[in-house]
Amino acid sequence: MLIVPEREIADLMTREAAFAAVEKVFAAMASGRAYNFPVVREAIGHADALYGFKGGFDRAGMSLGLKAGGYWPHNLERHGIINHQSTVFLFDPETGRARAMVGGNLLTALRTAAASAVSIRHLARADATVIGMIGAGHQAAFQLRAALEQRAFEKVIGWNLHPEMLPNLERVAEEAGLPFEAVELDGLRAADVLISITSSFDAILRADQVVAGTHIACMGTDTKGKQEVDPALLARATVFADEIAQAVSIGECQHAVARGLLDASEIAEIGAVINGTHPGRISESEITLFDGTGVGLQDLAVAAAVVDLAVAKGVAIEVDF
Ligand code: NAD
Prior knowledge:
This protein is α/β, with parallel strands linked by helices. The protein contains 11 helices and 18 strands. The radius of gyration is 19 Å and the shape is globular. The mean pLDDT is 97. The site of nicotinamide-adenine-dinucleotide has 23 residues, from α4 and α5.
């Protein structure tokens, strides 16, 4: 069995490789060659932790396995390590033998950023120049970096409930040589592309704060009860998701569906756009909305890519198991 420790991931995985792996597995999901297993997520009654598994099988990429992990809210203060902890396990689909164990923390941020970047590549207007961010935490910086590579953006604007975190976005804009402006929610109307990546449990953005032609990637809502945008926005938009079943149960779509503003049959898989079986954006004035809930197959796809890179570079640790 191969082990790729967390400390090696930053030197191995690139945004480009994460993008390619996620785009490919979304395509495989939409063509029925890959599927996710039901998600397990439990409050374990110890250390206030939420722990669970996300897994699946990708017959196209021959990845089988799961990501195990979750959220330990006291890690930083008690143990000096980050609160989100995860590990990916890959198995040989021919034999069921364990193939690899891979650090999943950085990979999670890269695969989540890759998902919204894939949606921007396939759904945003080609002439988009202003990107707007809602959220400025750990994931937001990864999201912005990957998004900036998808269009010739000229400006970054951002809003965050906690304005003291906005420098996290400003730094990424500066790295890319772009100006950054902090705005009120009304100011987000200037954006051609929007990403929401917060841990909010209430709608932040109203439907009238998004103008015609915008593409919005809603990335923060990955649990029942979380919410970032007004459900009326989903009624107004053409809605896409990584996986429809997950979007209507734990994604941003859950609220619009519960209020009868959206039916699951009206949601398209982003993989169908990648495969060319769905036209994607069909007009310059359409609002496209991507509900990125985060699926196990994304984790397996980036972990499998990183194992190949680690083997090629000679840094994978081989153990007799
Ligand atoms: P973080 O703690 O670093 O940042 C949280 C962000 O949410 C900050 O911008 C904060 O100001 C904002 N926020 C907190 N409470 C809020 C509220 N009540 N209203 C509005 N904004 C609020 O967290 P992170 O690691 O950046 O993760 C952000 C979100 O992304 C989380 O909800 C996480 O579960 C989700 N996430 C989704 C995926 C996916 O695949 N879709 C993957 C990883 C993380």
